[in-house]
Amino acid sequence: MNQLKFKLTPGYITGLTQTDGCFSCGFIVTPNKTLTFRLVFSITADLPCKYVLDEICKYFGCGNVNINKPNNTANFVVTKTDDLLNIIIPHFNENPLFCAKLHAFDLFKLIINEKIKNKNNKDKGWKKEIVQMGLSMNKLTLRKAERMDEIYEILGISNRAELPLIENTKNTIDTKITDDNLAGIIDGDGSFWVSFEKTGKMIPGFSITLDTATKPVLDKIKEQFNNVGLVLEKKKTYWTFIIQSLKALREQIIPFMDLNPIFSERAGHYAIFRKVCFMIQNEKPLTLQTKLEIVELAYNANKSGKRRKIPKAEYIELLKKIHSEKQTVSKRKRKRKTVS
């Protein structure tokens, strides 16, 4: 049903790229020790959400969607220079990214222009510049040290300090994060969940987690949700915007999501989360029957319940035990009142 309501927009694609997209430059050493470059734009999704990438592929009219079964992922990949120049780059010029991803995109554009301009230039100077920009695009890299040593040798570089990384200066949000940008960000790195406490309490929550270099995006999102919730450092490498107030979820998150539907499997998580929020709101205190219904709905909703510390069946027994103990205490209180 949510897929029928969903409309793929340029802003949504930019938002999803902000979280799950990548601009990269591969360094290829040919058998005759010549260095060439392979520019790639990609978006990655969990394999069950491959249909999202299929729709993006149709939207752009270029690229391919590949499956990586060992990683249980799918990838939308664009590598043709003409497609990058005429379709992908114009899209992100018109629908800007933010922070570190914008830094990577700007370098990506410079690299592709240098590559085209120096197509027949045999001087190594421009290749050094491309290597410098390519290494500066993304902090995380899978490039092995021995491969980089080989590349430096081909370029005649004896000291790596000759190619210092280009620092990311995109630390402020200079363009508006639109509603469909935000929907795409949520579809990539958002989470709707219900926390099941050992006390029997059930607490719904919403969060978005982004890398440290993109924290300004979370600060701006918090502003757009009327400054409810918190932006917290979870580790040195990432931050989380989190809301667990039922009032804030009902007044801010649910109205936004109803107006800006998402497309991936998170749409199903949201539907469950939304229903649970209303169940908790409409029945205070929750009866055992309602609690059991919420367990059936939400306990295994995200990652099949793998992150739960208590198995589902065990938690159900815990709820029944808590309920029984409360009834016993209640009966004792009633007896005391009767005697007095």
Which key phrases capture this entry?
single chain, alpha+beta, Endonuclease I-creI, four-stranded antiparallel beta sheet, 13 helices
Largest sheet: 4 strands, antiparallel
H/E order of the elements?
A: HHEEHEEHHHHHEEHEEHHHH
- Report the average pLDDT across residues: 91
Assign the CATH topology of the largest domain.
Endonuclease I-creI
> How many beta-strand runs?
8
The main sheet orders its strands as 1-2-4-3
Strand content: 15-25%
Question: Any idea what the CATH architecture of the largest domain is?
Answer: Roll
Helix percent band = 40-55%
Low-confidence stretches: none
Rg measurement, Å:
25 Å
CATH fourth-tier homologous superfamily of the largest domain: Homing endonucleases
**CATH class wording of the largest domain:** Alpha Beta
Distance N to C terminus:
59 Å
Compute the number of structural domains: 2
